[in-house]
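Risk register update: the risk of archive-format incompatibility is retired. Evidence:
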Amino acid sequence: MRTDAGGRARRRRWAGAALVLTVLFAGLGLSGGGAVVVNRVEQRYAAQLMNRYTEDVSAAVVQQVDRYGDTLADLAAAIGARPDVTATDFAATSAGLNWDRLPGASGVAFAVPATDAELPSVESYWRGKGVPTLTLAPVGTGVEHAFVIFSRPFDGIAAVPGRDLSQVPEAADALRMSRDSGKFTISRTYVLLKDRTLPADRQQMSFTLVVPVHDHASGRFRGWIVMGLRGGDFLNETLRTHARGAVRILLTDRSTGTARVVASVSAGTIAGDDPRNRQRVVTVGQRHWELSLYPTDRLLNGADRRMAMLTLSAGVVITLLLTALVAILNGARNRAMAQVDDATAALRMDIERRQETEARLREREHELQHLAFHDPLTGLANRILFYERVQHALLTHARERHTFAVLFVDLDGFKQVNDSLGHAAGDDVLREVATRLRNCVRASDTVARFGGDEFAVIAEHLATETDAQMTANRIVKALAKPFDLYGTPAHISASVGVALSGAGDADEILREADEAMYRAKTTGKGRYVLADARSC
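Archived output:
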């Protein structure tokens, strides 16, 4: 009996020791696993923050450059509308431009092309247009030159009339690209001629903005509107605002083979070779810039809430307590089991809290995905989602032999409302325009905002071309109604371009709709034009 009792005692001791070891290792394993899960969640949250910063900064750079490009395009349109531009005309047209409105700009100028053989006639002609002391100063021979005729400085250093811009390879390349493409163009980065006399520590990487000028009546190329822009003065404040002290940002131009910093913002301590570093190529003015974002200690400290360490510490403490309780109270099984149940319940609550945290993070991820495909101001689809809808419509309508239409809508007079009543009023107008556009189409159709005052519509499953015309007519009439802005009526109109499917791929349909919209704008505004050049 004593031997049996001793054997049972030994077995109980071994069973107790096995139970203690089982509880110890199981608790440590659960604590380590929970810490790993929480750490991954925190890492994913930091990556999502970097993605959001990347999207915000990319959009801000594009919007800032587009704003300057639109300003130059307006000036080029005003010059092109005058059949015989003079120095007085240029001064009056550019009178509203200055450093406060266009930070970083050194000035704006009108330049014209001329070959070696044309120099005497070009010089004589422009002397008669208000520059009596004009002397053209060509650099090199056997090339087409680009001479500054009129200019308005913003930094107090006037451009020299007659200076040959083609002497700067970066500017010459941009002038050629702009003339060939007929579009807004940005040069490669370089130091402006007027800045090369400054000390090295005060010189900035700069670039030239170029917009071609065409005669409105004949379409003949007349010259360029040119603006020198110092990169740091132009974009540093924009980058600093969006960095919020949490990320370091570098905007570089690699088109020359060597990375040249256009603008930068340093904040905090860089995390080094971190997988959360982000690079994005930003395309502006037919030029590709590389945007690099690096998380700093401030962002990482904000994302790292020490939950993994807390989870591990709590798990280890709970495990040790359970182990001690099991070892001490092995003889009092019922009470020990009750304490184990309590500890298990606390662990379940901790797991549930972690699961709730993960669920909130997933919801946030869905929200970010929604923002990636929708315009934040109006809630409409953005350009990316609209393009995907057009591609999808091409596939489905071709299979079902149905017709759809793409309508480009550009607001006439919106800039005047925005300038006179402020950006807040302009935003109210854009939101109301979005509401009216939704009311003009069916629930199955797609309404998108491309940015600024440009909108687009996909009208699907149309019976005839007349359906597209009716939709365009409704849009023109709806947007012609006055907008009530804080008791003040504001009037705008809409120029609408319509392109029917069957014209080609998605890019071709969008191009035709855009060209039709441009014809609507140039033939009177407040109307729509079909892609086959009929207007109403």
